[in-house]
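Morning!

This is the sequence you dropped in the shared folder:
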Amino acid sequence: MDGSTNAPSENREKTIIKTGLIGITANVFLSAVKAAVGIISNSIAVILDAVNNLSDALSSIITIIGAKISGKKPDSKHPLGHGRIEYISTLVVAALVLYAGITSGVESVKKIITPEEPDYSFFSLIIIALAVIMKLTLGLYVKKTGKRVNSGSLTASGSDALFDAVISLSVLISALIFKFTGVSLEAYLGVAISALIIKSGVGMLIETVDEILGRQPGKDYTDKIKETICDNKNVFGAFDLILHSYGPEKYIGSVHVEIPDYLTAGEIDQLQRKIASDVYRKHGVLLTGVGIYSINTGDSEIKELHRGITGLVTSHKGVLQIHGFFADKTNKTVNLDIILDFSLKNREEEFAAIKQELEKAYPEWTFNLTMDIDV
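The structure's back. Tokens below.
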């Protein structure tokens, strides 16, 4: 049931490699042409633009390497596959972008201190204009493909290419201003370009670190998984859905479900297996654990207790949800999970206050409360 061995993943890898090769070819060509134009016209902005294109080519190479490694089959050391390598490759791409931005900034400042006038020809302006169109087309293609195959590094490369098109356009405008007015904005434009490149690199870095730290997938996605689970008979609710990413489109997780207290062990076993099968078939998520919250049925006293506790707990500020309620009349214990908003200044104090209020309102019961998180 590992996603790395199926046909869609193989097609995804081929698509990433193909797109990366197109990016390498285009960026090497653009880098060579722009470098020649920059040297001939003595333009620091055009030369920096050429260096930026060369860093994009390196980014595409890293993206291809990451895709190849992430597509490797699981082994004894990596039983869940190698998908997380794509996060590492995206970090390397971000580091390259930052390096290009910093070095570009240094060179631009040098040109401000010791200025040199550029000398643009009509032919060089045509070349820069064509480069803008080519880079814009490449960026749209790469970004669209990256989103389609859910490749963070490919999407980042596409966004960077679109950004480069804007940079090349600003270089063209600067060249035209100098051509018609004699005012040289080269070095100052280089500083602005450097700042924008650095900003782009930092953004890519932050987004990738979020993925590595364990950013929860979008609520729409998790809600659909919960809906699939709750479509099963005897499932009253799905909670505590935890998903661990092992690369794009490779999630392994666990969930708790509320079921009636009269189901037998055999019935629960069959239900857990069906839930895991449904979720994998519809969403590609491998559920390694389906925990059980037993729901009291057929006891009016417990139902009244449940209503009273629910009202008391939800009256507190910051309570988003309660679930997992089960009352044991023999041992006089109540189990309950409470989700508190992270925006509360002190969640622990609020949780303690809720428990104290419950114990005061129902002194004959012992409360086993769990402070849960909203997933």
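Headline: The chain has two domains: 3-213, 219-372.

More detail when I'm at my desk.
O.
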